[in-house]
């Protein structure tokens, strides 16, 4: 984690500006040309993406406000004006992450004909998404919860992970009901196994495991699935 000296740097700049103003006959506090509020170059979407990458790389707790102002290239007043406090910014980041990077399981559940197909596709796409170059590895929703001591944030991330598992369980139960999966299938345990695989693959990706290695892990994970029934309707 980089050390931030933003506040000190700002203070020095302000003192310098005040001295210059006095020497030019400009009243202190009214430095000519001094920007007010957000800089003209402020791009909210770009700043939000930079915040997303910072939280993704370092987690929620370890990413300070001074870290955020540095990577977003804005002052603290601009950050608070545009996004609210750190927790509000993180909530928005998680929403953007879910849409831009983490929606592959939702698409798989919506588009694949069976729970097994949806899980297999999810694990395969996780292997790719979690190891793609150009952004931190693993899953932000998994990694940001590590060492998190803010109860509201910790609970929000837990709720997201549990909702994902519940979606798989619902789909598995539906397949059991129509005979695609055997009647004795433990839908809750199978869904929980899927969640454990997704979360474990995220951490393995953080540890440097390659896409090909994660794909082989996914193949083994799918081998424990019960045989499908004879339902053809």
TrEMBL record:
Pfam families, A to Z: TetR_N
Keywords recorded for this protein, A-Z: DNA-binding, Transcription, Transcription regulation
Keyword Repeat: no
Domain HTH tetR-type intervals: 41-101
Gene3D superfamilies documented for this protein: Homeodomain-like, Tetracycline Repressor, domain 2
PROSITE patterns with a match to the protein in the record: HTH_TETR_1, HTH_TETR_2
Region listing for Disordered, in residue ranges: 1-43
Residue ranges: DNA binding: 64-83
InterPro entries membership: DNA-bd_HTH_TetR-type_CS, Homeodomain-like_sf, HTH_TetR, Tet_transcr_reg_TetR-rel_C_sf
Designated name of the protein: AcrR family transcriptional regulator
Organism for this UniProt entry: Streptomyces africanus
């Amino acid at each position: 984690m980089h050390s931030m000296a933003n506040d000190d740097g700002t203070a020095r700049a302000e003192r310098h500006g005040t001295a210059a103003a006095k020497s030019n006959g400009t009243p202190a506090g009214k430095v000519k040309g001094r920007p007010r509020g957000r800089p003209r170059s402020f791009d909210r979407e770009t700043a939000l993406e930079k915040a997303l990458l910072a939280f993704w790389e370092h987690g929620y707790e370890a990413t300070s406000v001074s870290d955020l102002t540095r990577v977003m290239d804005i002052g603290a007043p601009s950050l608070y004006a545009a996004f609210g406090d750190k927790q509000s910014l993180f909530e928005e980041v998680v929403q953007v992450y879910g849409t831009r990077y983490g929606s592959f399981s939702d698409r798989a559940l919506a588009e694949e004909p069976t729970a097994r197909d949806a899980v297999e596709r999810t694990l395969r796409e996780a292997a790719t998404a979690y190891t793609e170059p150009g952004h931190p590895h693993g899953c932000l929703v998994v990694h940001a919860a590590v060492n998190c001591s803010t109860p509201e944030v910790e609970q929000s991330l837990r709720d997201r992970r549990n909702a994902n598992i519940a979606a798989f369980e619902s789909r598995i139960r539906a397949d059991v009901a129509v005979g695609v999966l055997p009647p004795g299938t433990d839908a809750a345990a199978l869904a929980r196994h899927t969640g454990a695989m997704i979360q474990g693959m995220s951490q393995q990706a953080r540890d440097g495991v390659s896409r090909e290695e994660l794909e082989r892990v996914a193949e083994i994970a799918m081998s424990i699935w019960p045989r499908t029934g004879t339902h053809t309707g």
